[in-house]
Amino acid sequence: MNARQLMILRLTTGPTEEVGETPHGTVSIFPVTGGTFDGDRLRGKVLEGGGDWVTARADGTLELDLRVTLETDDGARIYMTFTGIRDDTSHYFRTTPRFETAAPQYAFLNRLLAVGVGEISPDGPVHVIEEIL
Amino acid sequence: MKTRLLMTLNVRVAPPTDIGPVPHGTRRIARLAGGDFEGPRLRGTLVPGSSADWLLLRGDGVLELDLRVTLRTDEGALISMKSFGLRHGPPDILAAIGRGETVDPASYYFRTTPRFATSHPKYAFLNRVIAVATGDRRPEGPVYTIHEVL
User: Fold this and answer.
1) Which residue among A1, A85, A90 places its CB closest to the CB of B1?
2) How many C-beta neighbours within 10 Å does residue A119 have?
3) Which fold has domain A13-117?
4) Does the N terminus or the C terminus of chain A have fewer Cβ atoms within 10 A?
């Protein structure tokens, strides 16, 4: 599968909001307080707000459901979402980000699918995101 | 990105149902008449009942795909697969596809991100994988080459 680097996304998060056991699993919400993103074609900061809605399933796997807003260094706003899977026993942390923007210079983001490889660094989650070519 | 072949899924489409213009674009539902899949770790057939692709042609010309299919492996396990995808390309290529012609799949963008759910222990690994697929719209229906993201 051919892919091309899109960005490295670094998120900072606030205190976890533990929703607890729900019919689908144990839900925890990780609010996003900020962050940065950097790639060849776009860079900027993550706006405060949004978060990752994480459901711990009965099979030990975490289901991720993230929504954040990115602001590029030239002032464009990009709405980014992903769903994904995190399985700490096998160190598997993969996501499929999607993007929406009205900015013409970033309209290519509306037309691509991507895959992220995540890890939890001491400063917060880091996602290495590649465009699927 | 490291990937590994999961399966090739061949799908046969039935005549589509047009919903028409909706707030987000133009909606069309393509029911699936059948199909089969084969890979190193699983093979079987597509269960036609509920399997379909809920298509949305956006205002920017991109076709959003929302495929839901039920797979039955050769030993009878059922696997639910859902995949979101995008298809777009040069107008002449898309017109040729619309006329039912065979075109080079490298001449347009047709990618999806399948997710799986099953209760069968042999295939439980599918519950834990993210996958990406490249599509090839043949006249009888799409062929998806699906890779597990490692």
Assistant:
1) A1
2) 11
3) Porin (2.40.160)
4) C
